[in-house]
Structure formats: structure tokens, C-alpha cells
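Morning F.,

Quick status update on the modeling queue. The single chain you submitted on Monday has been processed. Sequence for confirmation:
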Amino acid sequence: MNISNLLRHIAIATSALLLAACSTPGTRIGQDPATAANARTVKFQQIRNATIKVEYAGTTFLVDPMLAKKGAYPGFEGTYNSHLRNPLVELPLPVSEVMKADAIIVTHTHSDHWDDAARQGLPKNLPLFAQNEEDAESIRKDGFTDVRVLTEDTVFNGTRLSKTGGQHGDEKMMTDPVGKLLGQVSGVVFQRPDHKTVYVAGDTVWNRHVEEALTKYQPEVIILNTGYARLLGYDGSIIMGKEDLSRASQAAPKAMVIGTHMESVNHATQSRKELRDYIAEKGLDPRRVLVPEDGQAYSF
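C-alpha cells below.
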């Protein structure tokens, strides 16, 4: 190779390196930037109750599926409005659409998060993530063949899934006999380079577990169960409520905060209207603190 050709090849190689350095992170040279941006978009859809879908890096996660028809189950004994039958409303989409997912996450196995219809109807070979081995074994007995236990460093399709802690009621509830029924609960954090970090808190009251997750993971999308579900004979709630939307908004002032788990089971006592009125009353930004209807979806 003569000197002229050598210089020409060096110039071509240098240009290629400069183009690579200037390209958008996660974008291949020659890839449509819009396509690359869409691949990094996080999508959330409220289904019903605590059942949601999170589409993350092209993988769709179905979280806490309760799939029964309206009124399929009696109300929860020992809770507010137990005369009402659950679910209180129908699914907003055909169940066949709801079940379209690449993986399932079950934060705990209470029947409003993992019901008989989900056990019977979901494909048994779908990857399914449970909070601990006890829940995983129970789900395997229902015929599911790919049940995995979440850890703080689980990876699925290149996305890191981190289990977070929670507490399904206040200290008095947890030390009383009812605490055994409330049981262990969990949340999950979704993380991946060039994607927003998403925190699904699960069925928990606001406590140190939530604060630790916010501090450790710095989520940009926070999903809270805010139906303020209540037991008879106890003050307070076994999950979050309207005031916790404000707490999350203050703790993570740049994050999107979403309230879910409302108007679908008998013991959830706070309505979407009440939360929206509270958002307006406290001057929270309704573009950042969101209360979706069933079926409503957002992209971040």
C-alpha cells in the first residue's frame, strides 16, 4: 500500500470513529433516531386494580394479574364494604389482550393480585417472577413451569429487576394475628442504561422500605398502590393513600408519580376523584402526579 492510500484509509477510519462518538447513546450508526428513541421509551398501562403493564426495553411485563369477571369473588371478610363482590368493575380490555405479555411479576399472592382466573388462564410457560421461594412453590403447583424468585439483581432480557421490601399495614397490624394474613409483600425496580428507572412499590404503607428504595434507586417513574384499603377495627390502611402521592412527589421532585389500585376491590376506600381533588388542593402538578383510569396508558 502506498503512502497516499494509507492516508486515505486512516482518514476513513477516523471519520467512522467520530460519527460513532457523536451518535445518540444506544443508537447504531445508520439507525433511525426515532426508532432508537422509541426503543428507550418506557410504557405504563393501568389495567384494573393493582394489575398494570410495564413495557420496558421492548419487553412487556404483566404485574399482579387479577383477571376475573366483575363480581366473581365475595368481598374480603373483616374489611370495609365486605358485602360487595370483587372485582367491582370489569376489565377495560378483553382478557386475551391483557394476557399478552413476555413475563409476569407477582408481588405477592393475595387474590386481588394473583387470582384464580390468572392461575387458570395465563400461559403456563410464561416466565414468572415471585417475591420468595414460598410464593414461587405455590405458583409452580398451579402448573407454571418457569417460575423464578426475584432478588436485588435479577436480569431478564437485559433489564435489571430488583426486589424491594414493603409492609402490608402499620406496626400494630403486623404484630396482631391479622399480620399473618397480611403476610410478606414486595415491590420491584426496573433498570437499564438509557432508560428511565421505574419503581413499582406494591402493597405497602409508606415506611423505611419505600424511603430506602427511593434513595437507593432514584426512580424517575414511581407507581404507588393508593386505594387506602382498610380493615375493620383498625385505624389507617394496609396500603398507601392520597397523602403518599404528595410524599413521593416531594421525595422525588423530578419523578412521575402514578396512583393505582383504586375503585376495583371492596376494601379500597379512596376514589380517583378524591385523589385528583387532593392533587389540586395541595397544588401538586397534575402533569407529573397522575391518577389513570382503567385502560389508560402513558409513555415516558
